[in-house]
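[Solved] Which block belongs to which protein?

Original post:
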Amino acid sequence: MIHHIRLLIFIFIAFALSLSARAAEKLFISINTENTSIVLEKNDTGDLMFMHYGLPTGDASQYGNYNSYRRVDYGTDPMAYPARGGRYYNEPALSVKYADTDANTELKYVSHKTSVPQKGVEQTDIILRDPKTALEVTLTYTAYQKEDVITAHTEITNKGGKTVTLENYASSCINLKAGKYLLTHFHGAWAGEMQTEHEQLTHGTKIIDNKMGVRTTHTENPSFMLSLDTEDFDENHGEVIAGALVWSGNYKMSFQIDEFDRLNIISGINPHACAYPLKKGESFITPDMIWTYSCAGAGQASRNLHDWARKYDLYSHGRMAPTLLNSWEGAYFDFTTPVLTGMIDDAAAMGLEMFVLDDGWFGTDYPRNSSRQGLGDWQLNTKKIPEGIEYLADYAHKKGLKFGIWIEPEMVNPKSNLAKKHPEWIVKSPGREATTTRNQWLLDLCNPEVQDFVFNVFDETMQLAVNKIDYIKWDCNRHVESFGSSFLREQSKFYVDYIQGLYSVLKRLRAKYPDVIVQSCSSGGGRVDYGALNYFDEVWTSDNTEGLSRVFIQYGTNMIYPACTTGSHVSDVPNHQTNNVTPLKFRFDIASAGRLGMELQPKKMSADDRAYAQRAIASYKRFRDLVEQGDLYRLVSPYDGDHYALMYVSKDKTRAVVFAYCIKYQGRARKPLIRLYGLDKDKSYSITELNTDTPSFWGDGQTFSGQWLINQGINPQLVKIYDSGIWYLEAK
């Protein structure tokens, strides 16, 4: 026994001396893309410090004698992954509670390695360890060379002998030094998601977070842009850093300016009610945080994110869903087979490519004739559709359309057979009443049995028409209240385990149904994040389909997320959410800037409106690939005046499509001037206005140099609210 104790002491001393020897030498680690660089330093005490993020600075060893002139009584210089404890007293990325009541963690550099998992991608793994507790943290940075994107996540491993509890466990931390910091972020609510807000950061801490558990992007969004050394948001000039978290649950992003005017940004899973225990040998991997840097304004930051997403994150890699007619606002719960086949006929006649049957098709004992019952009982309501789902799918396919269907598998109505059979599957606090929202409860995806049930809802729905269902609309119409799981022993794991359970189900579904198009709908834009887009082809941007509202919703959404993922529909007037009345052309011109669809009863349209719809749909197909894969240029912000304009440009700059809208009354004297940044100044472009017999721009049908269109621009006569235009450009 004494021999073993001496051996352990010898090993510990050797390990400590090894750490000490390695700590005495400074070491620099560079994470590089083609145009950006993160520089980290292992200092002479073994701490890993954050030195730089931005344009490359050359040989990192130049930081060898760098002096920040920070006073020792103001804590430490910026750390790459600051933990609570030691001399660090600002917002921590990591907080751990140990069995011996120690609340301090002091991470020291152990080693690092760099690998190339695929062409154009470089991964750097850095191991840190607390010498006292043996807690090990691996920081993983993945640099996407061409896209100028760096993702960061953390793996935390308990290599000690007793269970520890993670109280904060962020994905990433970066530190910046600038004179000013302009934060651009997003807020909203149902029917008004992704409203853009700019604010100058001041000393102290600004927090963007969400604690709703599910539908976490209706209010805030786990993304932002940060403009440096300016008070103005600029699309084309200046330094901009953009960030987004790959997570669909609770999140937290903190922006803290310290006494030395340095900005520390920590981002990851929200630690609220989420203390996470790790037993001996267990690990926890945080979600990725995406970073990109631009020295050419916010527009380039968006394009970096979009390029990265289409190549590496989006399940479909940018494949856009077909144009479609959704039954919801055209029929709601009140339909029969003839109503649906009539809508399919009309969709085909207008040139649409898919019909989607929305809510109301299921429920036997509790038929789904309203939102008050039936969720959870996913059997076909044969009184509405006696011929079956396969009949409808076949009917659509014979008309040349794909077929889709709606489900909401995470939810259950109290009035359902499922709720009676499995009350233990309901998310609720033990001993408290389960609260309802929209007359429904949330199923507990922490529970593997519930995961199996949710998988089977999707699977059995697909079996209603084997190999004939092309599209699933996956809805999620409430958030978490009075959280609790009858399956979990540690309730603090609920918020994390729920999302991990959801992802587990989605992985299984994608393994079995890799080619089915799946939309993430969450009362509209409640699940718009890069975590969801790992599994879903697109998001339903908002339940608000009114054109003027969609200007601001789509502007904010596409600042971070590519247009190919954003469903945008033409609906009836007066609009069912706002009661606003907008011209059909304006509605089509707005919807055509995303994935175009329709959501109305075509039989209520006039013959002229149907003919216009057919024309607009045909035009959309002409430039759809630009919306899908092109570079986005925001030309005029809707927040800066009375117009909104944007453009998508092909990668080779031979084609482009421009959208412009008047969103306030102007009068006869004032016309917008829209400079077409993003074209090739050395090419010449023909310009054609689409979907109108009376062009609003005097240069319609003419050819102009790219230099002229960039510097002079176009001045269409959009003078009344709801005037709008779409111009197609082609290089000659």
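(Second protein starts here: sequence line, then its structure tokens.)
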Amino acid sequence: MKKLFYLVSICALTAMPLVFTSCDDDDDNQVTPARGVSNLSFTDTDKTEGKIGGTLTWALPEPETNIDGYVIYLGGTATEKKIKAGETPKGSKSFDVPAGTDIPAGPDLYLIVVARNAAGESTNMVALSVKDNVGFPIVTNPSFEDADLRPGQIAGTLSWSVPADDAEAVTGYAIYTADSRDGEETNGSSAGKVTKIGEAAAGATSFEIPEGTAYQAYLRIVTLSAYGEAAYSIAIEDAYTKGGFYILNSGNWNENNASLSYYDYTTGVLTADVYKTANGKGLGDGAEQMLIYGSRMYVTVSGSNRLAVLDRDAKEIKSIAPAGEPVNPRCMAAGAGKVYVSYYYGHSVAVLDTASLEIEKEVKVGRYPEQLTVAGGKLYVANSGGLDYGSGYGKTVSVIDLETFAVEKEIEVIINPTQLKADSQGDIYVISMGNYGNIKNTLQRIDGQSNEVTVLGNATSMTLVNDELYTLFGQWGESKITFKKYNALTEEVISDNFIQDADAISPDNSPVLAVNPVSGQLLILEAPYGATSSLYLFAPGGTLEGKAVDTGGYASKWIAFVNE
């Protein structure tokens, strides 16, 4: 049987604006407002034929300058202000259309919102097409916020208020996704696609959209009743936005010019020195690593002997300088509300409580510790011995029990270990930089159960995303960069060349690899000595996307994604 739908739809038709005496909104009220509201929403809760009632809502223009208020009209077309329903002051986001409001004569019914000031009403009318509810119960006040951060997928709670009248006639609700506000189910065709995702019982006021539900532009709640079916569709947004990422630029040696850059995926624009813009001062000397954990960012500024705690807009919350002789905070890992920091000159690891932002404890490890990682209730620390190259590099990974915060064992690896990553089953991946001569940059795996060490090949930089290990081998003096990708769970090689367009990047320029954890986009930082660094972006398939981007900073060495 054909379903009857009582729908609300945004009309794409907007009146053409007149020519104004000024292109800018100003506060002198000498010209009518240039901007209008957006995202109108309304459902008729008055079931009397020829009458409507309910709450009309909208989003305010940004900025709301040169506007004193809004006038609401009913019209038979999208540009006809036939009956004035009322006014609201500046800042209002809704208007209650009284129950029993008569519908004007005309081919259709529209609610129209017009911004006004002392000079008059704007010619930018924003219209919403409305269907008269002629007797079927219909839900009101639907709302939904996507909790699934993956692109093209949604999840979360869809809620509504039960029909105000004839609730006893309601037999249940059917929930759909749809690519248009109107339209009917079309058996999966691409035009007007409507997909049923579940049902709710009579009396229900919510429905859990399952994780991984394919995103469409609308969610539709169909009220099933003894009279028939009536639907209310609401526009929704995919919570995943490409967002962007921060780039940590270490700066030139002893030049006090470490910095942060930000790349915005939406605009494709890289903004340099965002830390200085946010704080009115430089970041410091010799930045080493940044970490996004919870609502904050943590940056080790090793040469300045401090740990900077920032909000996600790069505004500094606190600067932590360890007491005593400089220890040069180096690398970080996080878990269970703690940030673990290696002290390079202190030959130790400290624990920062993320609630109090105070250092709680410290434990000695091996010489010149670098990266850390957490797995299976343990903290693994790479002891590089990096400044003891004359007397011999370090060759151990310390294992710290997180309950006692004591070192319980040392695992021997190839000399000069610096980088660590852990997969979901507790295995640890290690890159040892060797001696920059006959012992090459080497990738190893520590079995999380037996602590057995296996050599996998060569690598200079790595990142582990969704249990896939991406590696780059670009040791200084090598002729070209090579790439290899592993399945960390099956321990099999997935690809021997997952980037094809990297010939322009030199192994001598300290290349660093990163992978967007949501989109799969591949990124490489190249840091030539004495010049600002370059950022290369590659599609997940490995093809170069556009030209290299100047990071605006020196010795770029770390990328932190805001959607991590």
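Accepted answer:
You had them paired correctly. Confirming on the second one: The longest strand covers residues 51-59.
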